[in-house]
Amino acid sequence: MGLLDNNMIDYYDSEHQVKVPKQDWMEKHLEPEYWEKGTQSRKSKQQWFKVNIDILMKRMRQNDNDTHILQWMHGCEGETQPDGSLKFVRGMDMYNYDGSDFLSFDDNHQVWVAPIHAAEETKRKWDEVQVLKEYTKGYLEKECMEWMSKFRGFGKEKIEKASPPEVYLFTRKVNIEQNIILTCLATGFYPGEIILNIKRNGRVLTKEDGLVTSGYRPNHDHTFQRRDHVEILKSDVSAYICEVEHLASKRHVNQTWENPFVEDKGNTNVIIAASASIVIVVVAVAVTLVCLKLRTSRLDCDEENSPHSSLSSVASSGSDKPVRDKKKPDENNPLLDTDKPVSDLKKPDEKKPLLDNDGDSMISSESGRASTQSLNSEDSSGSKKTNPSNDSGAERK
Fold it and tell me: Where is the composition biased (Low complexity) (predicted)?
């Protein structure tokens, strides 16, 4: 596919084997001959991938039944000058095998760089071909820059029309019950360059804090999106803010996250005060009941010790002793003049609280400079892939 400032401008349909424009202005300004030539170039490159991936699989002694991927990306980056022209900044020509860097071209020193042992043989062969190195350098610094200037001119109206981002801050569950993932999403912006930070108590979170970013991803309407996330505790009371700045549209957003899993301190105080009031009322009721019980017991004892009660007892028992010989009850302690000992007296019912108080809290321009990129990336996946050692040069426009 072809990219301009991270925006797809064309791609190769491998099923129908044809190069297809992705932007209306690409189809409008480029002749049919351009697309026919591009189709033939991509067909040739598709065959090149098949041959070279087979070489790599044999070199690495890999199983033919496994799926392997060889990718190639080349392009250039320029900086817009005051007069509107583009100045070359750097060129890129690199290969990736099964998700790892395999080989890249050092434009400044005109040498190929092999980060892994399996690529060293290819590096030696390509370094010996001086014309290949000169051609690659010339394409990156001149031809690529010329194509980028043309494409920017064709799509100037679309490219210069900036679209601001929409910002969302939300959470989702994880396997650990006590944790959640906090995500900041910025979407719908163009060009595809943006500053996005998640801050905890004013400090920008990084990879060391567990921050994960998706990078820039295209939307269906040619705008972009990016989402960053970090895993935190539900009980975390820190202040989290998602900060988004889109220089092209001059949009600056600060979105604050309100933790719904932590009770508001003000509400908690109200609940505690209400609970305390209920407890006081319950205790007061219990004390009143105890006092009433004691008073009832006292009245019962007074009736039992009255003169009429004593006479009735004497008559029924047939005692010869006069009433005056009976021992008078202690008027100061009527509870002791009962038929039962003090230990057998029924204690007042101690009521339990009426309420348990265990409530549950519950990319067209970069910062500081205007820049642009034109990238052409080739990708091939299948049961076989390739090694760039048999290619005398990269695909050119």
Answer: 307-319
Q: Does the residue 365 lie in any domain?
A: no
**DSSP category for residue 348:** P
What is the rounded CA–CA span in Å between residue 209 and residue 306?
86
Which pTM was predicted?
0.52
Q: How far apart, in whole angstroms, are the C-alpha atoms of residue 222 and residue 167?
A: 17
The average confidence (pLDDT) of the chain is 76
Same-domain check for residues 154 and 267:
no
Asked whether 165 and 244 are in contact (CB, 8 A), the reply is yes
* 142 and 173, same domain (yes or no): no
Q: Which residues contact 40 (CB under 8 A, 6 or more apart)?
A: none
Average pLDDT over residues 103-119: 94
Same domain, yes or no: 147 and 193: no
Each residue's pLDDT tens digit, 173-206? 999 999 999 999 999 998 888 999 999 999 999 9
> Which range marks the domain in which residue 269 is found?
263-300+340-360
Same domain, 94 and 64: yes
pLDDT recorded at residue 298: 54
Angle CA 166–215–258, to nearest 5: 45
CATH number at residue 206: 2.60.40.10
> From residue 52, how far is each of 24, 71, 82, 229, 390 by CA, in Å?
35, 11, 44, 39, 7
Taking the C-alpha atoms of residue 32 and residue 215, their distance in angstroms, rounded to an integer, is 35
**Phi, psi of 248, rounded to the nearest 5 degrees:** -65, -40
| Residue 396, in any domain of the structure | no
Backbone angles phi, psi at 368, to 5 degrees: 95, -15
7 shares a domain with 141: yes
What is the per-residue pLDDT across 19-58, written as a single tens digit (0 to 9) for each?
999 988 999 999 999 999 999 999 999 999 999 999 999 9
In a domain, 41, yes or no: yes
pLDDT for 361 equals 37
